Amino acid sequence: MEKHALWACLGGLASTVAVSLVVAAFGTWTGFNLFSFSLWFVLPVGAIACGAAALSGFYLVSHRTHLKPGWWMIAPLTAFAAVGYVSIYYLEYQWLTLDDGSHAADLVSFGRYLDVMLSSQEMRVGRGGQAGFALGEAGRWLAGLQFVGFMIGGGWIYWALRSARACLACEQYLRERGSRPRFFRNADQANDYYGLFDHDVDSDEFARKASLGDPKQGKSLTEMMIRTQLLDCDGCHRQLWIDRPSVFNGKEWRELPELNREVIIPPTTNVARFVRGNGLPSWLG
Asked: Would 109 be classed as within a structural domain?
């Protein structure tokens, strides 16, 4: 676990550095900070998105190495989010060139730069951000709100790991091996497909029912849609078949969660060919 935790931290560090560089460069060249975008003045969606992106490396490595989330993750996630947020301002400070060609970093300290910059922020509203007004001291409160948004983005990474599906047998994260929609003109056709697991997975009747449902919604009236997803465990090679039905009410698709089903496929059987139309890679067959 210690080795995997170290790799996860390195992945988080790498993505934090990358996102900080991109956001700071974009802000320097365009004058717009991506993390400053807010909805209704108080919802820092830009900061939340940047915080999640900055910690994406931590998530990817953790998921790849099957590292389970724990309370110990809170410290590095919080640290990386804080470092990423401050790094964006610091990089902009280092790259800021004044009209006379001088560099801000040669004239004022980073602390003084932050003080002036935060107190002179403007809030732009409307499509294209044409209108705007000075925030004054409220700019510091806005910066604090954006910092909280960055932290929320990091917290989302923790939540994503906590909610990721894992194998009940060996506790490794499940990976998606395929998915497909199935469109049916009426409930009778959908019910025919839903009898899929009344048959052995190696039988011809299972193969017939597994192929039911149009992969694309046709021009004719379609009443039901079932989205099939197949997850696979790298450890024990058990597969999880998931069906999520929806019904069309004339205007939109409405999910039917009470009809959702999940079926565990024994490790001796591979049913991916019924979900993925392009066949299987050699290492999965």
From this structure: yes
pLDDT band at 279 (very low <50, low <70, confident <90, very high): very low
Residue 208 shares a structural domain with residue 67: no
Residues 50-65 pLDDT 10s:
999 999 999 999 988 8
Q: Which residue has the tokens 């040669």?
A: 106
Is the domain of 156 the same as that of 188? Answer: no
Q: Which domain holds residue 24?
A: 2-163
Q: At what angle do helices 74-95 and 110-119 cross, to 10 degrees?
A: 90
Burial string for 19-35 (b: 16+ CB within 10 Å, else e) reads bbeebbeebbeeeebbb
CA dist 140 and 226 (Å) reads 49
* Residue 232 domain flag: yes
Q: Are strands 239-248 and 261-265 parallel, antiparallel or unpaired?
A: antiparallel
Residues 6+ positions from 211 with CB-CB distance below 8 Å: 274
> Residues 157-167: pLDDT tens digits?
889 988 888 88
